[in-house]
Specification:
This protein has 265 residues and is of the alpha+beta class. The chain has helices at 65-80, 119-126, 128-148, 168-183, 208-219, 229-234; strands spanning 3-6, 17-27, 30-41, 48-51, 56-61, 84-86, 91-92, 105-116, 152-157, 160-165, 189-201, 204-206, 225-228, 243-250, 257-263. The chain is elongated, with a radius of gyration of 21 Å.
Length: 265
Amino acid sequence: MPKFLRIGIHWSNVSGYTSKAWCVRRVGSVVHLKWGAVEVHGAGDGRKVCWSRLPQEKTIRCGTAQRAQDYTRAAIARRRSHRYEPLTGPITNRRPSAGRSPEPKQALATILIVDIVGSTAKAAKLGDARWTKIIGHYYAAVRKELKTARGKEVVTTGDGVLATFKAPAAGIACATAIQKAMRTLGLEIRVGLHAGEYTMSGGEMVGLAFHIGTRVAAKARAGEVLVSSAVKDLLKAQPAISLRDHGMHQLKGVPERWRLYRVEG
């Protein structure tokens, strides 16, 4: 079964990221397709790829073996031109946790979301080799600042990073440090922060706080760090952090309108 993994992070030197995989199999005149989100662990030839959730599947009955063969060839050609690389190893089911599955864990934290602005256009301009090298430096820089600020990386999504902090001031300090680090790489990022309760279930963050944080980040422009009013309320004892009112915003899919603030300095 030909398998393909979406290009976006240099698999030779980065571990623990999420991506998308796509598979095709032909049996006579029938074509079986399977695709979905995967987790990549390890690096180089020893990397392991597993489905992060049940993949989507589709069966196409082409009528004749020749039509099925033509369909398969065209489908593979499209994936090869859509930033996928051939995947030689297997895609396994999600790694089982030791013992019984733990109950979902609920926590209160400041959620930080970092995203590269215009990453697709930049990747097309630089080419795969240069872009994957820059992405490797990008993740190294983000993780260095997370470690310094005692943030906890939760997940990476393409060229985005989601992390949590016990204190909002630490999250803001980390965001501004990441911004400075990105200037040396020629990258522009946007950052959003929100404070609230979230739940970890099956290795994934769920809950309204996560969605609000994502929408806050989406409202930021290149070079901006935006925070929600929930973060501002927790910063009353931190006069050294300067925030400017960014107005009321409707966050997609989130009830009510939210006042956002831009981190200054």
